[in-house]
Design goal:
The chain is an alpha+beta fold. It is 24% helix and 38% strand.
Length: 139
């Protein structure tokens, strides 16, 4: 696996360029040779079921997609388009910060694969997923 091309600071600056990512509050908290860690502060707007108070699955899917993409960006120098993604939901995301870990499964010349797990603030697994990114996409 090649060395990282982006530092934690560079990844954080890049991930927070997009207004949607700013709204999510994404914070890159760690980068190592194996992947990246991102904290997502809870927002009441995440809630889909007001009686129970859990987050919409689309929020978790978004986190899986973005964090996986930026795990690749750490190695390749920039994010790439997603071409396929699978998400498994393990338990409801209740109020509290979310923590995601993205890791590269395969670096390819045309397509690369990353997987991400999302945990609650107690370390319980909420969702996991794998995505394919088109790394041969035009710059």
């Amino acid at each position: 696996m090649p060395e990282n091309k982006m530092t934690r600071e560079e990844l954080h600056e890049r991930i927070t360029r997009a207004p949607f990512h700013q709204w999510l509050g994404l914070e890159v908290t760690g980068v190592d040779e194996e992947g990246i860690d991102v904290r997502i502060p809870w927002r009441d707007e995440f809630v889909v079921n007001v009686e129970v108070g859990y987050a919409h699955g689309g929020i978790l899917a978004t986190v899986i997609d973005v964090v996986g993409d930026f795990a690749l960006a750490a190695k390749l120098g920039r994010p790439y388009p997603t071409v396929d993604m699978r998400v498994d939901y393990h338990r409801a995301a209740m109020p509290g910060d979310l923590h995601a870990r993205g890791q590269i499964v395969k670096l390819g010349k045309m397509f690369s694969v990353a997987e991400t797990s999302v945990h609650d603030s107690n370390g319980k697994l909420l969702a996991s997923g794998r995505a394919v990114y088109a790394v041969a996409a035009p710059k």
